[in-house]
Design a protein that fits this description.
The protein has 259 residues and is mostly helical. It contains nine helices and no strands. GO terms for molecular function: guanyl-nucleotide exchange factor activity.
Length: 259
């Protein structure tokens, strides 16, 4: 078949154009990753600053607590013996009558106010984080990952259909007594298709496994696995024009046979 249909001179520039487009896409992804790293650094600095402020606040509260304890101890040491009326009031408060009920009501109100203030503070923290650049970058990152998983699933399905419904039946027919096509031409049409299918099946399974640990995702090693296989994709892309020539040649033969 190579004698009948030599490779056209435009095939190599077309493949080079495809590779240049892929290179531009990789550069854009690299720039996007750099932006994510910068936003992560900014968020880290902000969180460290907040931690320092909180630690200072904790130290201040500890000092106040120590001071209050000292005052309480000094006040307890300077109190005189309680009178019978004071003992009676305390006894009534312990029994839940009089001022004891009032104290319980005050505690309930204080508890309600503390809960409301905590919920309000937490809501403010969550809203601030949602509007932060770090949250925006994480949303974009998650959207890219989910889209990549969906596209990879669809691509693996299409490759499986190509190999199962076309490549393997043609290989079987090429081994028959009267083969309608040769093994060489089958390989020319479907060059590296089965290998690429296996690679993407492994890549897709790796993505699904990493999605189980969401939102902590580490995907760099999966792409490192595909980098050494770029030569397979280069052969696959360069062979596209020639595979169309072989297919059209067999299509022309079949059309002339049934006329």
């Amino acid at each position: 078949m190579s004698r009948i249909f030599p490779q056209l001179p435009g095939a190599v520039p077309a493949a080079y154009q495809v590779l240049s487009q892929q290179r531009e896409e990789l550069e854009q992804k690299y720039l996007h990753l750099l932006q994510i790293v910068e936003s992560e650094k900014t968020a880290k600095w902000q969180l460290m600053q907040q931690c320092e402020e909180q630690s200072l606040e904790i130290r201040r509260l500890k000092r106040e607590l120590i001071h209050l304890r000292k005052e309480q101890q000094s006040a307890e040491g300077s109190t005189e013996e309680e009178s019978d009326d004071i003992k009676k009031i305390k006894k009534e408060s312990n029994n839940g009558s009089g001022s004891g009920r009032f104290t319980q009501d005050v505690c309930k109100v204080q508890s309600f106010l503390r809960g409301w203030l905590c919920r309000r503070r937490w809501k403010s923290i969550v809203q601030d984080y949602i509007r932060s650049p770090h949250a925006e970058s994480m949303r974009k990152r998650n959207q890219i990952v989910f889209t990549m998983v969906e596209c990879e699933e669809e691509y693996v399905t299409q490759l499986s259909t190509l190999v199962t419904c076309f490549l393997r039946p043609l290989k079987m027919s090429a081994s028959s007594k009267k083969p309608p096509i040769t093994h060489e031409d089958v390989n020319s049409i479907f060059l590296n298709s089965e290998t690429i299918m296996f690679l993407h099946q492994i890549f897709y399974q790796g993505l699904r496994a990493r999605m189980e640990s969401w939102p902590t995702l580490v995907l760099g090693d999966l792409f490192d696995m595909l980098l050494p296989m770029l030569s397979i994709y280069q052969e696959y892309v360069r062979n596209h024009h020639y595979s169309l020539q072989v297919r059209n040649w067999y299509k022309h033969i079949q059309t002339g046979r049934y006329k």
